[in-house]
UniProtKB/TrEMBL annotation:
Its cofactor is pyridoxal 5'-phosphate. It comes from Thioclava indica. Belongs to the class-III pyridoxal-phosphate-dependent aminotransferase family. Pfam families: Aminotran_3 (PF00202). CDD domains: OAT_like. The lineage of its organism: Bacteria, Pseudomonadati, Pseudomonadota, Alphaproteobacteria, Rhodobacterales. PANTHER family: AMINOTRANSFERASE (PTHR43094), AMINOTRANSFERASE CLASS-III (PTHR43094:SF1). The keyword Transferase applies. GO terms for molecular function: pyridoxal phosphate binding; transaminase activity. This is Taurine--pyruvate aminotransferase. Keywords: Aminotransferase, Pyridoxal phosphate, Pyruvate, Transferase. The keyword Repeat does not apply.
Length: 458
């Protein structure tokens, strides 16, 4: 930890934080009697807080973001040099890093063509929703503006993004929402909604049933995560994505893959959808694009989508949208260096090897602890669903799941969980360590979970 900060300095920081900062996703009532945690420094996979406690970070910055680890001087240097040269100009003009990163990015995404910059995943998804609505008015006489989203998926924190939220507790108390968003069933086979052999195809067929109910000429977009993230780390059953693609083609529905969590290496491929042979019309990304070293999100489209907005016969025919901070040059220059690191250090290969080790370790824990009902994941993005009884699959109580997370934190290991998202089903432990993870890191994470499960569940 940085030794230049005195204890008085840190005490002042903690006091200022407690008095003035409104933290994300946090009930502040307890801070009337305790201090908030303040993180001070990070290096590789490790973090230190203001009290000097060291942590092994098993969730890449708390929200699946710091893919290449902390303390990357080359990214910081690249950002510093770019900011001195040109820090910003509105996205109505181009920039050197913006052009070069877009070029490098679409090289990793065969079939995709154009990159629209913004600064958060929520915003990136809203761009897609706006594009689809505009396409409906321009191409379909005001029809095909309804948007399908999936139960348990999450697409952002704005009012319209929450209209597409498959996690009821995240949306609770924030309505009324933007109309025209329709939910389709989830595809978690462990929580099977149909007793069939070909579960993947049946789960996808449920999407077609919603389309037929609403009217195919009303549906413009299907928005899905490649692997459901905060809804329980749900990997799609075999055959699911192939059938989804067929359905979209059959009814002329655009397909939007939300890669805000999975994108840029998390699943062992550059993008999660590439594990399943999907050909999307839109792909959105944010968290891992620059590993948290700068704010950036991308809405990536096919050339066919882009061409729909090249219409100078209509004065309103272009995409009339701006993201102010989409014009910051720090995001794409950080993303370029982030991309180079992943390539030069073979981090996709490491993600697959360490992801396999993490899954093996979790299955070993499953043999030791009956409270683990299911283990699932892809690459370095894994989950363990906790249950009171394996036969009935009764979900473990959220407070006890949170106690496991707190026990790991006390041991100096940070893990995650589904949290106040799904009534009765906030029972999945989440693991998403950085792509630089070593075997020792993976083992340390699961050893901490082993001890915590023993203490909390006996």
């Amino acid at each position: 930890m940085n030794k230049n900060l005195t204890s008085n300095d840190l005490s002042h920081v903690i006091a200022a934080d407690k008095a003035r900062v409104w933290h994300h996703l946090t009930q502040h009532k307890p801070f009337e009697s305790i201090d908030p945690r303040v993180m001070v420094e990070g290096k590789g996979m490790r973090l230190w807080d203001a009290l000097g406690k060291e942590f092994l970070d098993g969730v890449s910055g708390g929200v699946w973001t710091v893919n290449v680890g902390y303390g990357r001087e080359s990214i910081a240097d690249a950002v510093r040099d770019q900011l001195v040269k040109l820090n910003y100009f509105a996205g109505s003009a181009g920039s050197i890093p913006g052009a070069l990163f877009a070029e490098r990015l679409v090289e990793k995404m065969p079939g995709m063509s154009r990159v629209y910059y913004a600064n958060s995943g929520s915003e990136a998804n809203e761009k897609v929703f706006k594009m689809v609505r505009q396409i409906g008015h321009k191409q379909h006489g005001g029809r095909k503006t309804k948007i399908l989203y999936r139960e348990r998926d999450y697409h952002g924190t704005t009012i319209t993004a929450l209209a597409a939220c498959g996690q009821p507790q995240r949306a609770q108390q924030y309505g009324p929402f933007t109309p025209g968003f329709i939910e389709v069933p989830h595809c978690l086979e462990y929580r099977a909604q149909w007793d069939v052999e070909d579960y993947g195809r049946r789960a996808a067929d449920a999407i077609e049933e919603v389309i037929l109910r609403e009217g195919p000429d009303e549906i413009g977009l299907l928005c899905l995560e490649p692997v459901t993230a905060g809804g329980g780390v749900i990997t799609p059953p075999e055959g699911y994505w192939q059938r989804v693609q067929e359905i979209c083609a059959k009814y002329d529905i655009l397909l939007h893959i939300d890669e805000v969590v999975c994108g840029v290496g998390r699943t062992g491929e550059w993008f999660g959808y590439q594990n399943y042979g999907v050909k999307p019309d839109f792909v959105t990304m944010a968290k891992g694009v620059a590993s948290g070293y700068a704010a950036i999100s991308c809405t990536v489209t096919t050339e066919a989508v882009f061409e729909m907005f090249k219409d100078d016969s209509d004065p309103l025919g272009y995409f009339r949208d701006i993201s102010t901070f989409g014009g910051c040059t720090s995001g794409p220059v950080a993303a370029l260096e982030n991309l180079r690191i992943i390539e030069d250090e073979n981090l996709l290969e490491n993600t697959n090897r360490m992801g396999a080790r993490l899954m093996d370790n979790l299955h070993t824990l499953m043999e030791r602890h009956a409270v683990i009902g299911d283990v699932r994941g892809k690459g370095l993005f894994c989950g363990a669903e906790l249950v009171n009884d394996r036969a009935s699959k009764e979900p473990a109580d959220e407070k006890r799941v949170a106690a496991v997370v707190a026990d790991c934190m006390a041991q100096g290991v940070i893990i995650g969980m589904t949290n106040r998202s799904l009534p009765g089903f906030n029972n999945t432990l989440c693991f998403s360590p950085a792509l630089i993870s070593t075997p020792d890191d993976i083992d340390a994470i699961t050893t901490a979970v082993d001890g915590a499960l023993g203490r909390v569940f006996g």
